[in-house]
Amino acid sequence: MTDQQPPPPAHEPEGSHATGASSASEGGSSTGQWDQTLRSIGSSASTREDGTLDVLATIGGWRGLIESVLPSAVFLVVFTFTGQLWGAGIGAVAVAAVFSVLRLVQRQSPVQALAGLAAVALCVVVALNTGEAKDFYVWGFITNAVYILVMGISVVVGWPLMGVLFGLIRGEGLEWRQVASRRRRYSVATWFVVAALALRLIVQVPLYLSDNLVALGTTRLAMGLPLYGLALWMAWLVSAPAGQSPADEQRMEHPDRHR
Questions:
Q1: Compositional bias (Pro residues) at which positions (predicted)?
Q2: How far apart (Å, rounded) are the C-alpha atoms in residues 128 and 138?
Q3: CA 97 to CA 107: how far, in whole Å?
Q4: Are 152 and 193 in contact, with CB atoms under 8 Å apart?
């Protein structure tokens, strides 16, 4: 199953609405509206009351963790003990389908409910098409490579993805892009997540090439959402604004502009 990586929601500190209004007047109405849109997207916080990142909530809580792990675990266990690729595939899809039905019954978003099922089904189809159980994990390699590429490009072009996501949580909108120190911190934060994704490939691709299915499947479970959550937590720490807003940091970097 592909590693689910839900974006973190946000927490809006005091005074952020005033800052957003200022951006609208100084940078044009469209910029201000976009900044306010970003803030509203992040209104359902995955932060605790003390402002720290709630990693478990960010990755979907215990339910999200189980939904991510269990279909792959069923596939690995069934195939290991029976050697039946069809049986393992049906078992994995059945488990994912149960989770999807539960979400639909609870009237959650159909896209959210069916995304996990679609990912598992795709992994099973790939394995059945090649006749190799290890190919159940190929789609995960592809998605990891795409995430690495997208995040790397985001840093190079000056829009580090962790800055966009964490900017929602911290109520910064896009103001952090105006401050060199914030851009650097969010670039480093993004590289932390890239490193975690790259580590998956470094460890798992050799296991795939060596046909070590049990080691590959077990490693995939261990390096799925748990590793991603750890990377998010570290990225959150290294990008912390040290108790200052982007406007405060900008004044410290360019004091002559604010006299």
A1: 1-10
A2: 12
A3: 15
A4: no
**Token output for 15:** 């005074």
DSSP 95: H
The pair of structure tokens assigned to 146 is 């795409």
174-209: per-residue pLDDT in tens?
Answer: 899 999 999 999 999 999 999 999 999 999 999 999
Are the beta carbons of 238 and 181 closer than 8 angstroms?
no
Crossing angle, helix 161-169 and helix 180-209, to 10 degrees?
Answer: 120
145's tokens? 């490579």
- How confident is residue 50, by pLDDT bands cut at 50, 70 and 90? low
Length of the chain as a residue count: 259
> Using CA atoms, how far apart are residues 157 and 229, in angstroms rounded to an integer?
25
| Coil vs helix vs strand at 195 | helix
H or E element in which residue 147 lies: helix 138-156
Given a contact cutoff of 8 angstroms between Cβ atoms, the answer to whether 167 and 43 are in contact is no
**48-77: buried (b, 16+ CB within 10 Å) or exposed (e) per residue?**
eeeeebbbebbbbeeebbebbbbbbbbbbe
Tokens at residue 76, please? 């690995």
Domain residue ranges in the chain: 16-258
Nearest to 228 by CA among 156, 144, 107: 144
Structure tokens at 19: 């800052």
* Residue in 193, 114, 98, 121 with CA at minimum distance from that of residue 154: 193
